[in-house]
Specification:
about 130 residues; alpha+beta; 2 domains; about 55% helix; disordered N terminus
């Protein structure tokens, strides 16, 4: 947590600030950078859950006539599309091992980590004071 008045050196990069509400009361508020970082990680988690569901449903041969399975396939198809063709699908009958979903499961968190790093770099540049 950071001091809102900037009296404590080294805490200007903090994710939360303490804001006085009234006499004797303080309120902790997340910074814009912290909210952006949390939003990126949340989106990455949602994407990974959808991709993980797709991978498991394909692996266990779930029926695409089910509305839930169709929804998962519909939501995950554009997320997996860039990774199709890297490795061939393997399996027998309806039980399919889809490597494109596994690659996507690995790439999207890495992409989110890169975006979070950029957010932190951009946010820290505005705070530095050069002599």
């Amino acid at each position: 947590m950071a001091d809102p008045l900037g009296n404590v050196p080294g805490l200007e990069d903090s994710d939360e600030v303490i804001v006085p509400i009234s006499t004797g009361r303080l309120h902790v508020v997340a910074t814009a950078r912290s909210r952006a970082v949390r939003s990126v990680w949340f989106a990455a988690c949602v994407i990974d859950v959808i991709l993980g569901l797709r991978f498991l449903l394909e692996l266990f041969g779930a029926s695409s006539r089910s509305e839930f399975v169709s929804l998962v396939y519909l939501l995950s198809a554009p997320l997996v599309a860039p990774f199709r063709g890297i490795f061939p699908n393997a399996g027998r009958g309806v039980f399919v091992l889809e490597p494109a979903a596994l690659v996507a499961l690995a790439i999207y968190p890495l992409l989110a980590g890169g975006i979070v790093g950029l957010i932190r770099i951009i946010a820290s540049r505005g705070r530095r004071q050069f002599p």
